[in-house]
Design a protein that fits this description.
Belongs to the CTAG/PCC1 family. The protein is an alpha+beta fold. The protein has helices at about 20-35, 80-105; strands at about 10-20, 40-50, 70-75. Helix 1 crosses helix 2 (about 80-105).
């Protein structure tokens, strides 16, 4: 079923951010979820999804895991400008979350720091 356009919030954007583990995807979601959208003209929702749900291919070698390692953020706004402003703020917050994960969690880089 195709996505229906909400007449009150006609502008939308979905951002899928792959992370190395389900734990990190969940932690990012929890960290970002606490900041509510300031404008009533914008709505945002978070979820985690698996890599398998993003591939429509019949080739099973492309599907690496059913673990929910992708942070999905869905935005709806009344205007393109409001959508842009909200997404810019989200990207700033995401940058901070990923920076903290990179500094404090070994899973983010996928390799251990030199001793």
């Amino acid at each position: 079923m195709a996505n229906q356009i909400d007449p009150e919030f006609p502008c939308s954007l979905t951002i899928d951010l792959p992370l190395p583990t389900a734990r990190l995807a969940s932690a990012a979601m929890q960290a970002l979820r606490v900041d509510k959208e300031l404008s009533p003209l914008v709505r945002r929702s978070f979820s985690t999804i698996s890599t398998a749900s993003t591939h429509a291919s019949k080739d099973s070698s492309l599907v690496s895991s059913s673990e929910e390692t992708i942070l999905r953020t869905e935005y709806k706004a009344t205007t393109n400008r409001m959508l842009r402003v909200a997404v810019n703020g989200f990207m700033e917050s995401m940058s901070v979350v990923l920076g903290v994960m990179e500094e404090l969690d070994v899973d983010v880089l996928g390799v251990e720091a030199p001793k």
